[in-house]
Amino acid sequence: MAFNNFLARRAGHASTSGAAAKASSLSVRQRLELLEVYEDADLGWFWATDAADAFTYLSPGAAKTLGGDEEFAGKAVGEVFDMQAAARDEAQRSLPFMLRARNSFNRFPVRILKAGPPVWWEISARPCYDAGGTFQGYRGSAKDITLDRLEKEEATRLVRFDVLTGLVNRRTITERLEQALILTRTQKRPCALIMLDLDRFKHINDTLGHQAGDALLLQVAQRLRQIVGDQGEIGRLGGDEFQILLPDCEDRGLLGSLAQRCIQIISQPYLVEGSRATVGASAGIAVAPFDGDGADALTAATDLALYAAKAAGRGQFRFYSSELKSDAELRREVEENLRDAIASDELTMFYQPIVDLRSNKVSCFEALLRWNRPHAGFISPAIFIPVAEDTGMIAELGRAALMQACRDAAAWPAHIKVAVNVSAIQFADDDFPLRVREALDESGLHPARLELEITESVFLGDVEVAEHMLRRLKKLGVRLALDDFGTGYSSLSYLSNAPYDKIKIDQSFVRGATAPDNNNRAILKAIIDLAGSLGMDTVAEGAEAHDELELVRSLGASHAQGFIYARAEAQADVLSRLAEGRDVYEPSGPAYFRADRMTVIRKVGVVHENHRYDAFMRNLSRTGARIEGLLDVPVGTQVVVDLGDGQLAVAVVRRSQEAELGVEFETPLVSDGAGGLCTRYRVSPYALHAASNAAIPLRHSDPADRGVTDAFAPHSKFVQVELNWSKYLK
Ligand code: C2E
Ligand code: MG
Ligand code: MG
Predict the structure, then answer these.
(1) What's the 490 CA to ligand 2 centre distance in angstroms?
(2) For residue 504, which ligand has an atom nearest its CA?
(3) What CATH number is given to the structural domain containing 258?
(4) Domain boundary among 578, 610, 625
(5) For residue 412, how far is its CA from the centre of ligand 1 (angstroms)?
(6) pLDDT, greater one: 446 or 310
(7) CA 617, 621, 626, 629 torsion: positive or negative?
(8) Residues whose beta carbon lies within 6 Å of some atom of ligand 1
(9) Which ligand has the nearest atom to the CA of 382?
(10) Are residues 361 and 310 in the same domain?
(11) Do residues 452 and 436 touch, judged by C-beta distance below 8 A?
């Protein structure tokens, strides 16, 4: 057999070195037998080449894996071993180099050139020379290490990737972020980070089980991959947190739409283990170097932005801004003070009318909690209700709110109802119907005058349990209203067998429905028609302008609630109004809805020819702003409006009257995700720093700096009028 020839030759060479023979007392014959046993057991293989690097021998077991002796016979080394793969893979000298240099090598990993799944060997060999010192070829051994390598690769994968979703894990994405930030610092290349967190994922885990939760996360990851594509890298940080790293990206228009798309697509229903499930998502966005140029700072900035998005009602994105810091502090403060506030009656109920669209008469008041903090003003329930939910205080708060609302309503004329918001946490409490009964008994309010507003989020968990609760509540004789309809979870078809008396269509459908190209109108019509055919009332929430009101009226909505009729009022005001018999609310508001106009009241800087003026912005739109504080600026003057945090908008004065300017921006602003606007690009802190050294008075993003008039004031062309900030800022 071939092996015998090979060993015979090998023995011949051994005699030239003599070392192996001396080291063993076995005869050549015995050693040959041992090697044969070793080779037959496929524990290891042998190979030999000639001076031209062509194979002259390969153990039968090894040859078989290459397709048999026939296939392999006479092949050159380069036709069997992948010379490049080995070099690429290991940080050592390449195989071709070692062969050319006639080096010995030991345990060198090499990929076998062969169709199918990759096969790796580890080869060792040394060159052989004849007595005259002429190279005769290599003699070597080999071993299949494919399995070992797979295990090693798997271990690396485990370290770098998230096992469940296959996305990179926290460690890897943080490394990539650090690498990207090096480029930010050294080459001034921006880099954006989006932090995404699923809303109510815990609920899915708790109600449908962890396996279902895992299945859902996997689908979320797949959806994210589709959206992000090769624009950036997605990582899963653990739990329901994802991060998207977008190198070389600073355009907030683009980032906002990407985040919005992620939120929208993630919020579509899932099928997990045969059940339909829905989650939402919130996103926080920060961009280096503007919001921080270290990994920790940038991550903390996205955290804060995400937190703000969640606090504002979830399902939204937010850009980081230095003001968010104070929001986070506010929330901490809320957490610390809410309990005392409940005890010391700082929380009161306000009532907003829900008006019958045929007669403009109030048919119901929605009870809305207000927290009037001494010295701090009103705190929105959108901020403190989530805190109350997280801390478990909602049970007590909800109970007190329900009781108060029923008591107050009992003092109104008997045809007017009261609507009370019920948190999903209250709703999940098995004793909730008892609490309702208590409030009715204690206040003497007729059950038919109490309407419970429930959002679709109560169906995120076990639908049957939720439906059972609805039936129990109905049995008490109270009315049920589905609040914020359309914001997420149930479909229109779901309404057909739901026991609601009223559907409240979310503000987001009403607001802007009259704008051209807005398909909310079609959605509104579908909801109103279906609800009407099922005998349910429909309330259009958040109507602010006359055209919106006319639209919902013409589409057949039965009721509307919104600032166009009234904001929420204190019980005393409601009582005195009703005592005078004034139960009709006349709509009053702007004639048309304008998507891009918003009232903002804040300080800005106006930079003109090296001088920065303090001014006051009263009105902001995508295309321009109304600014107060500079006297007699000629129309046509070019200025830069400093909106803070590196947001500089080049603008031209279009209107000017005394101290009031109307300016038009050169580049329209983009949505900031919070219902506000921001500039697409910002001036980097590096440039701001350079500008301040050059005495160009721009405002830094340091919050401590906010609103402080710059000390240096080069020659100013316009007169800055003294503004009484406190008048506006309270
Ligand atoms: P909601 O139940 O959807 O209440 C309607 C919200 O829309 C109220 O905000 C109301 O002031 C606002 N709104 C009404 N008309 C307009 C309009 O034309 N334009 C605009 N921009 N907004 C309008 P509010 O009072 O800040 O309450 C926010 C949310 O806090 C409520 O949303 C509700 O979910 C929650 N909430 C309020 N009070 C309670 C409560 O007693 N218990 C519970 N669980 N949640 C409450
Ligand atoms: Mg409500
Ligand atoms: Mg609502």
Answers:
(1) 17
(2) 3
(3) 3.30.70.270
(4) 578
(5) 21
(6) 446
(7) positive
(8) 352, 367-369, 380-382, 385, 398, 401, 421, 423, 453, 483-484, 542-544, 561-563, 568
(9) 1
(10) no
(11) yes
Q: Do 82 and 186 fall into the same domain?
A: no
Residue with the smallest CA separation from ligand 1 atom 44 is 423
The rounded Å distance from CA 460 to ligand 2 centre is 18
Judged by its nearest atom, the ligand closest to the C-alpha of residue 352 is 1
Identify the DSSP state of 710.
Answer: P
Our mutation pick for probing the ligand 1 site, out of 366, 385, 422, 482, counting the most ligand atoms within 8 A of Cβ, is 385
Which atom of ligand 1 is least distant from the CA of 423?
44
Question: What pLDDT, on the 0 to 100 scale, is given for residue 597?
Answer: 59
Tokens of residue 112, six digits: 């076998």
What's the CA-to-centroid distance between 351 and ligand 2, angstroms?
11
In this structure, are 132 and 201 located in the same domain? no
**Nearest ligand to the C-alpha of residue 568?**
1
Element (H, E) at 629: none
Same structural domain for residues 65 and 134?
Answer: yes
161 and 168 Cβ atoms separated by less than 8 Å: yes
- Judgement on whether residues 449 and 366 belong to the same structural domain of the protein: yes
Split into its structural domains, the chain has a count of: 4
Tell me which long-range contacts 223-230 makes (C-beta under 8 A, separation of at least 24): 223/265, 223/266, 223/268, 224/167, 224/196, 224/262, 224/266, 225/167, 226/265, 227/258, 227/261, 227/262, 227/265, 228/258, 228/262
Encoded tokens for 249: 């990206």
pLDDT value, residue 1: 42
Place 568 in a pLDDT band, splitting at 50, 70 and 90: very high
Return the best residue to mutate from 334, 365, 368, 390 for the ligand 1 pocket (most ligand atoms within 8 A of CB).
368
Q: Is the peptide bond before 289 cis (omega within 30 degrees of 0)?
A: yes
Q: Are strands 377-379 and 362-373 parallel, antiparallel or unpaired?
A: antiparallel
- Nearest residue (by CA) to ligand 1, atom 42, is 421
Tens of pLDDT, residue by residue over 270-307, are 988 888 888 899 999 999 999 988 999 999 999 999 98
pTM: 0.58
Of 321, 351, 382, the domain-final residue: 321
**Helices and strands in the chain: count of H runs, count of E runs:** 27, 34
* pLDDT score, position 221: 97
Averaged pLDDT of the chain: 85
Residues 166 and 146 in one domain: no
Q: Residue 654 belongs to a domain with what CATH number? A: 2.40.10
Range list of β-strands (E), 28-119: 45-49, 55-58, 81-82, 105-112
